[in-house]
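Quick question, first post here. What does this chain look like in 3D?
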Amino acid sequence: MATQSQSSEPATLGASLKGKVAVITGASSGIGAETARYFASLGCRLALTGRNMDALQAVVDECVSRGLARDQVLMIQADFESEADVKKTADQTLEKFQQVDVLVNNAGVVIPDSLESTTLENYDRTFAVNVRAPLQLIHLLAPHLIKTKGTVVNVSSVNGVRAFAGVLTYCMSKSALDHMTRCVAEELAPHGVRVNSVNPGVIKTQIHKRGGMSDERYEKFMEHSKTTHAMRRTGFVDEVTRTIAFLASSDSSFTTGETITIDGGRHLMLTPVQS
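> Answer (accepted):
Ran it through. Tokens below.
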């Protein structure tokens, strides 16, 4: 019996992003930078935010080398602890492109803490960047995403799915982001806007070092992390980026409200691998 299909999408994964406008926050390094590079190779116009403009400029140069014209990439210096910078991101994007098709909420912060060591200052900073800023940006851009029947991809963490010691407020913030994803997905679904999250395991980026982890401690953490993932290794940024492209594009046209773990099975592990 022949199967019925409504799809006439391009064969290449993410090809429907060509010509679209994507906002990618925290694009100066790590997952955000690789997402920008990958989207550029697909012909997606970009509004990129970061705190370090030198690093962000290097990403823009790489996006141009992937085929985008320089006037198809917008750089926005933004610290997402600041409500004003979040609003600036939305305003400058709309001023340049007059539309938004994709929002990738990638900017995030992790500050190691426990119940004993945490402070309200750390809590406020973590939730401002990891929860409030994505919510504010979705709120500001929702009318424009509705016009384009666009997509939102939130970059969460396996820490939103599982509890881990030593990162109390980070875990709390990612759980909040995951549930926000589900709530907003339900609200925007009648308007044709899809909202999903990716939940990476340990990926080699700079986020832990920016949170205060020394080089020596980071190397030990990365080595130990091989024992906490079922696949016996940590992940690479491009492994996350390809899933982001899938969720951002029409390839996932019937998917919304999902949180997808890209963690080598870390969420499955109750105890570390025994050597």
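The chain is about 45% helix and 15% strand.
The first helix runs from residue 30 to 41.
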